[in-house]
Automatic annotation (TrEMBL):
<dbReference type="GO" id="GO:0046872">
    <property type="term" value="F:metal ion binding"/>
</dbReference>
<dbReference type="InterPro" id="IPR051547">
    <property type="entry name" value="TDP2-like"/>
</dbReference>
<dbReference type="GO" id="GO:0016605">
    <property type="term" value="C:PML body"/>
</dbReference>
<feature type="region of interest" description="Disordered">
    <location>
        <begin position="46"/>
        <end position="68"/>
    </location>
</feature>
<dbReference type="GO" id="GO:0003697">
    <property type="term" value="F:single-stranded DNA binding"/>
</dbReference>
<keyword id="KW-0539">Nucleus</keyword>
<keyword id="KW-0460">Magnesium</keyword>
<keyword id="KW-0540">Nuclease</keyword>
<dbReference type="InterPro" id="IPR009060">
    <property type="entry name" value="UBA-like_sf"/>
</dbReference>
<dbReference type="GO" id="GO:0005737">
    <property type="term" value="C:cytoplasm"/>
</dbReference>
<feature type="domain" description="Endonuclease/exonuclease/phosphatase">
    <location>
        <begin position="171"/>
        <end position="407"/>
    </location>
</feature>
<keyword id="KW-0227">DNA damage</keyword>
<dbReference type="Pfam" id="PF14555">
    <property type="entry name" value="UBA_4"/>
</dbReference>
<keyword id="KW-0234">DNA repair</keyword>
<keyword id="KW-0378">Hydrolase</keyword>
<dbReference type="Pfam" id="PF03372">
    <property type="entry name" value="Exo_endo_phos"/>
</dbReference>
<dbReference type="InterPro" id="IPR036691">
    <property type="entry name" value="Endo/exonu/phosph_ase_sf"/>
</dbReference>
Length: 419
């Protein structure tokens, strides 16, 4: 193995699909990656906004047979993943040898089963010259873009900076861990989508101990906080490279017959203090009163946060609009992110049995509901501006007739104002 250091400039691998070649661009890594990271997010936002009708959304779903979530590991034979401590050592060693950062190291190592020599060789193969290089030795083909100082200067980027990112991304997803059908493949698909999208914060619901362990192992770049350790529960994931954990606490719903609770996580990005509340409210029409009581408790918990600090909250609320109306609607200062981002019809129903075939309903009636929701409680002055709301997980998992979950995932992007 021949090892050389890389000149300043770093390497970027973009989280977007190239329009001129068939291989995907995966993630960002290396110095000065924020600009290209934002470009990919904005491009993805623009592409999603073009879906202006349910018919267009159906057209995307109809492509599923050719454009499904690809999981390259065998369902019957797990690839052996090192423990977290070993992964961290390999990450640090890669970053030291290549003079890059841990984000870059995670990208190369994860796609090559944590083989350090193979990963370093792939890195130097991709970074011989400025420009684009296709790699084919990982789990799937990928394009690596090497950027030197002159390219950054042309884009007005200047020198490397420690300035916090200006955008925040959040995903919320009920991953349906209670359904054992294709659970292993579906959980792999969830991990693959999170890895590709690189959200800063993830809210998960209906996680079971087995899937929580799997997610924690497959996504070591995230700090994983679980709301319980019994039958099923919620979890919050914080991306280690962009958002920093301060504390968390679990708030039980005393009247719940299903063990439901509320995770409150406090974190920060630069000088901006943020609070995240993730929950899974009581299920079923017959438990409407308890669900409304839980929703009221959620709003009260959010409103206790100091007005100078921002709050993002939501999850699988199992809520009907009439239930919210009976409580007087959303409290002042809180925005429904789907509504504030345009109330796009194709993103309205998050549990949609007319499109999602994971659950079977006899007869012609197929229910659809907006069970899953995300909200922002604004700080004074405002620090978060919702910019985009969309859905993920709308493609079937390869070699199955299942989607990753019976719920679509919610994805939101925010502009963060300087503190």
């Amino acid at each position: 193995m021949r090892v050389r250091r890389v000149e300043r400039g770093g390497t970027c691998v973009l989280n977007e699909f190239c329009t001129t070649v068939s291989v995907p661009l995966i993630i960002f890594c290396g110095a000065n990656h924020n600009f290209f990271y934002n470009l990919a997010r904005e491009k993805k936002s623009e592409e999603s906004s073009k879906m202006s009708s349910p018919d267009e959304h159906d057209a995307v779903k109809d492509k599923a047979s050719n454009d499904v979530v690809v999981l390259n590991e065998s369902d019957d034979e797990e690839t052996e993943i090192p423990d977290r401590e070993t992964c961290q050592k390999l990450t640090e060693e890669f970053a030291k040898i290549t003079n890059t950062d841990e984000a870059c190291a995670q990208f190369y190592l994860q796609d090559r089963n944590w083989d350090l020599e193979r990963s370093i060789n792939a890195f130097f193969e991709a970074t011989q010259h400025t420009g684009v290089k296709a790699l084919h030795d990982g789990d799937e083909p990928e394009l690596v873009v090497k950027v030197n100082a002159s390219m950054f200067e042309a884009y007005g980027m200047g020198q490397p900076t420690t300035k916090p990112p200006s955008k925040l991304s959040v995903i919320s997803w009920n991953v349906d861990g209670l359904d054992g059908h294709n659970l292993k493949r579906r959980t792999k698909a969830v991990c693959k989508i999170i890895f590709q999208e690189q959200p800063d914060v993830v809210f998960l619901q209906e996680v079971i101990p087995e899937t929580f362990r799997y997610i924690s192992e497959k996504l070591p770049e995230y700090m994983c906080i679980q709301g319980n350790n019994v039958e099923y529960f919620t979890a919050v994931l914080l991306r280690r490279f962009t958002i920093y954990y301060d504390s968390h606490n679990i708030i039980p719903f005393s009247g719940s017959r299903m063990g439901r609770n509320l995770i409150h996580v406090k974190a920060h990005v630069g000088k901006l203090n943020l609070h995240f509340f993730n929950t899974h409210l009581e299920s079923g029409i017959e438990f409407e009163d308890e669900r409304k009581s839980q929703l009221k408790s959620l709003f009260e918990a959010v409103q206790k946060i100091p007005e100078t600090e921002s709050v993002i909250f939501g999850g699988d609320l199992n809520m009907r609009d009439k239930e919210l109306d009976s409580l007087g609607g959303i409290p002042p200062g809180i925005d429904d992110i789907w509504k504030i981002c345009g109330s796009r019809k194709e993103c309205q129903y998050t549990w949609d049995m007319q499109r999602n075939t994971n659950k079977e309903f006899p007869g012609r009636f197929k229910p659809k509901c907006r069970f899953d929701r995300l909200y922002v409680r604004h700080a004074h002055p405002r620090a978060l501006v919702p910019k985009h709301f969309g859905l993920l997980g709308i493609q079937k998992v390869i070699m199955t007739q299942s989607y990753p979950s019976d719920h679509w995932a919610l994805q939101a992007f925010f502009q963060m104002e300087a503190a």
